[in-house]
C-alpha cells in the first residue's frame, strides 16, 4: 500500500512506464557491468537521487521500501563472511571480504534502479507495460486479482480495527494482542468469502478471457523514451568506462 500510494503521488506518475522501465533496465545493466567500488557507489547515488530529487519520492517512503531488501542483503553478506570450515567450526573468512563488498554494492545499485521504477509507476501502468511486452495473460490476471484483494484486505482490516477500538479492544497490551488475534482469524474468513464471491461474479459473467482495462495514453511517450535512453546510455557508458 505504501508503494502504491507513493507511486500515485510521484512527480513521474505521468511519465510513460516504458521510459522509466528503460532507465531502470539501463541502471541494472550498468550495475552488472561496473567493476570498481567507486563506480558502483556513484551509480547507486545517481539512481537514488533520480528517485528522490527527480521523481520526488519522499525519503521516509523510500527508506521504508528498501529497508526489507537491505536487511536480507545484510544477512546474506554476513553469511558469506561467517561460514563453517572443514572441521565444521564457524570462522571469519577475510578472503571473502572483497567479493562481499562487490556483491553488496552491485545489489544496492540494482535495488536503487528497481526501487525508482516501482515507486514512481502505479500498478496499472506496470501491468499495461507488461502486457505490451507479451507477458503471460494468466500471470497478469493473477497480479490484477492480488492487487484488488490488497485493497479489499486493507479496507476490511481498517473496519475491524475501528470496530474493536470503539469497544475498547486496545486499552491494554494484553487486550490489544487478544483483539489482534481475533481480527486476524476473522480476516482469514472474510478474505476467503470475498474471494469466493469474486469467483462467483466472474463465473456469472462467463469471464473466460483476460481482464481488460482502459489504457492510459501518454502523449509524450516517444520523447520521454528518448530522454530515458540517453540517460541510460550515460549510465552504461560510465560502467563500461570503469572496465577499460
Explain the overall architecture.
Belongs to the CbiQ family. One of its GO terms (cellular component) is ATP-binding cassette (ABC) transporter complex. This is Cobalt ECF transporter T component CbiQ. The protein has helices at 2-9, 17-33, 37-54, 59-81, 97-118, 123-132, 137-166, 173-204, 221-243, and strands at 82-84, 90-92. It has 244 residues and is mainly α. The protein has a two-stranded antiparallel ribbon with strand order 1-2. α4 packs antiparallel against α5 and α6 packs antiparallel against α7 (137-166). The radius of gyration is 23 Å and the shape is globular.
Percent strand: under 5%
Q: How would you sum up the global shape? A: globular
| Strand order in the largest sheet | 1-2
Q: Which structural class best describes the helix and strand composition?
A: mainly alpha
Radius of gyration: 23 Å
Number of continuous helical runs? 9
Distance between the termini: 43 Å
**Tally of individual domains:** 2
Please give the oligomerization state of what you see: single chain
Question: Stretches where pLDDT falls below 50 for ≥5 residues?
Answer: none
The biggest beta sheet, please? 2 strands, antiparallel
Number of strands: 2
The ordered string of helix (H) and strand (E) elements is: HHHHEEHHHHH
How confident is the prediction overall: mean pLDDT? 85
Q: Determine the fraction of residues in helical runs and give it as a percent range.
A: over 70%
Membrane topology: Multi-pass membrane protein
Main location: membrane
Pfam families: CbiQ
Keywords: Cell membrane, Membrane, Transmembrane, Transmembrane helix
